[in-house]
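Lecture 7 notes: from sequence to structure.

We start with a single chain of 530 residues. Read the sequence below before looking at the structure.
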Amino acid sequence: MKAYTLVGLAAVGALALSACTGGGGGGASGESGGEPVIDGTLSYAITRDPGMLFSPLNPSGALGSVTQWAYESLIYFDADGQPQGWLAKSWEQTPTSLHFEVRDDAVCADGTKLTAETIANNFRWIADPANNSTAINLVVPSTAKIENDDSSITITTVEPDPFMITAIGSQAIYCQAALDDPQSVSTASNGTGMFNVTDVVTGDHLTLERRDDYAWAPEGGADSSTPGVPKTVELKIIENESTRANLLLSGELNVATITGPDADRLEGKVDVLNSGMLITGGFLYSQAEGRPTADKNVRIALTKALDLDELMQVSTAGKGERAQRLATVDPQVCQYDAVGPNLPKTDVAGAEKLLDEAGWVKGADGKRSKDGQPLVLEFAWQSKGAEIASAAEMMADQWGAIGVGVNHDGSDYGAFIEKISTPGAASKIDVMWLTANYPVPSALMVYYTGEAPPKGNNFAALNNPKFDALVEKANNSTGAEGCKAWEAAEGEMYASADYVPFAMTSHPTFAQGISEYGIKEFAPSTILVK
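Now the structure, written as tokens:
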């Protein structure tokens, strides 16, 4: 297995609706000596099939493992969490606006020139409700005003967002033909990145080939003429962690993310390239009219009935810890524990009392009902990994102990996302397993406020006016005051049991023979073969 050197340029804000990729931070200690290998091949494991390769229609965290090779963004973030120029040469920001001066030398994979208008059109496409983008109000709000001239773009929002540059600046930029026909890049790519997707075998692998015309790297980054840049990148879809670990140990893989017990086998044998904490266990209660969980006291009771410490241990195979806040991806702008002081604590007797008071009483069979309607929760969760399935079964057992029934609906990632994002889903599903990860809390509010699908991504139709008011206050605050305001807003959400995050896990990325080179952030689009 060849050794590789990394030149990192990552835009670190990629959304993950299911934790499966590592965050930034930390460098590897692998060897960096040796002569560069010309036209080498890099073998890189991803944990699941990314699905459609057009990110405005696909929120999969796995897709970020593809887009970071083939697409570029306006900025990237350095090790201190500060924005640095990529497709943008300079920028100015306020809580309600972003202005970017953009470079004019980037060329699309189809040979067309990337223009300021095309960059602006990326955000127009997302903001247009007619396109049903899963990134609407996450990357850019539907009410945003998006303008451009020949050399710049300006995005102005109605509501302030002190962290707006993270979402907008990190968005993968597609070329105009891709925006005109997203299906054209469903199994291909058309961006300005150094690599181009040439082959996709669903469930098995994706192949990318180097673009030999790539010459517009940011300062300090590699381009296609840099000795050692691989000619071919194989993204191998390997869901089983033990298999990924075995292939790393045997030298058949260069890079892979491994968590749980298998990570222990790699310690001291394979370099840790980076490691970040991601939320891996959490769920929403539907607040759609007519669902039992629309009642705050029912949500609190159901939460009190759960042993969240035990669920954390099971869902993370004993390798995690209790979640503290929404935004855990590096670079973390705010750091606080809003979960511990506010989330309802385990209290089975208190749970039963609350359900009794809410009218959900036990019958002779020990099962609860109200006005003849049995209390049976429809529970949708992702079937990735035995740990999640075990945690879901444990939740059902603990609810069953207080007379609450559960209908399980476990499905693979693609089917799960389609299920919860279907219009009216909140009227059919009571509990949704959801683990969304991002560096700043404001970007995640799209899942907990606003419109339900298809107009928004408030999957569980959450409706908490006090929380909404605190979010508005937080969006109008900056710096340390802003973080305090977000802590208060999150605290209200947890106290009301709107969302229950209970587990986060370290996601280390292991690598064979990799060391840092040049820019210190990890981005596989600029790996040098040595």
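Confidence is low (pLDDT under 50) at residues 1-32, 515-522. Keep this in mind for problem set 3.
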